[in-house]
Amino acid sequence: MKYLKQFCIILFVSFLGELLHILIPLPIPASVYGLVLMLLALCTGVLKRAQVEETADFLIEIMPVMFIPAAVGLLEAWPTLQEILVPVTVITVLTTVIVMAVTGQVTQCMIRKNHHHKTSKGADMR
Length: 126
Fold this sequence. Notes:
Blueprint: H1 2-23, H2 30-44, H3 53-61, H4 63-66, H5 68-76, H6 78-83, H7 85-124
Helix pairs in contact: 1-2, 1-3
C-alpha cells in the first residue's frame, strides 16, 4: 500500500505539470514542470523525501525498460533517419558533451560551495 501511495503522489505531481503545461503558453515540456514542482515540494518541505523515495528508486531502476518503445520507433524510422544520420550523430555527440561539461561544472561548484559552507560553519563554532 505504501508503494501505491508514493506512486500516486508522483503521478499527482506529474499531473500538475501537465496542467501547468496547458495553462502556461511556454514551449516547456510538461515533464519539466513536473520535475520543478517535485523539486520545490521537496525543498520547501511540503513533500518529504521518505514519502516518495522507495517508488522513485524503483522507477529509476526500471528506466531502461522505458526506452524500448523509443528504440523500436527509431528502428521503424530508419529509412528516414538514414538520410540525416551524420548531422543527427554530430548534434547528439556535441550536445552530450556540452551537457556533461555543464553538469560537471555545476556539480563542482556545488561541492565547493558546500565544502566552503561546512568549513566556515566549523570556524564559527570555535
